[in-house]
Amino acid sequence: MPFWGPKHSQFTAPIEYGDVVRGAVAAFKMEDKAGKILLTPAWLSRDMDQAEPPVVANGVVFAYGSGENTAQADVDSGLGFNTAANRVAKSTHATLYALDARTGKELWSSGDQITSFNHFSGLSVANGRVYIGTYDGTLYCFGIDSAASSTSAR
């Protein structure tokens, strides 16, 4: 489950990867407790800039921070801030992460390879590759080396 902004002070997971300020992905387990099915926290990912919905394939969670500036208003211009020009100028870049589905441990990150932000488009996974499109019209494709002992980009 992705979320934006800081982690709530009362939320805890058995495995967490640092302070969450801009967003993260939280994983949950379904458990039967006294005849009731509950979702219990399993792990919380590292901080991601505006975390978006992940995709799970072959034990790997592909998650990303969109890098988009999602502010609707600011102190100086109020609601007038919410223009395409302002949002584009104040956005950064998307970052793709490969996480171990059991633990949330980061296996790989695209770092600064993606140069634009993502806006309202998700990830696709097919034939050992993960795809992400960006606002500037670029489609990025990252391959996963299945022969390696750990996940890495090709």
Model description:
With 154 residues, the protein is mostly beta strands. Helices cover 5% and strands 40% of the residues. It is built from 1 helix and 11 strands, in the order ββββββαβββββ. The strands form 3 sheets. Strands 1-3-4-2 form a 4-stranded mixed β-sheet, with no helix packed on it. A 4-stranded antiparallel β-sheet has the order 5-6-7-8, with no helix packed on it. A 3-stranded antiparallel β-sheet has the order 9-10-11, with no helix packed on it. The longest helix has 7 residues, at 84-90. It is globular and about 55 Å long. The relative contact order is 0.16. Mean pLDDT is 91; it is low at 147-154.
Order of helices and strands: EEEEEEHEEEEE
Helix and strand composition category = mainly beta
Physical arrangement of strands within the biggest beta sheet? 1-3-4-2
Quaternary state, please? single chain
State the total count of DSSP E strands: 11
Query: For the residues shown, what is the average pLDDT?
Result: 91
**What is Rg?**
17 Å
Largest sheet: 4 strands, mixed
Query: Termini, distance in Å?
Result: 27 Å
Low-confidence stretches: 147-154
Helix percentage:
under 10%
In terms of DSSP E residues, the strand content is 35-45%
Q: What would you call the shape?
A: globular
The helix tally amounts to 1
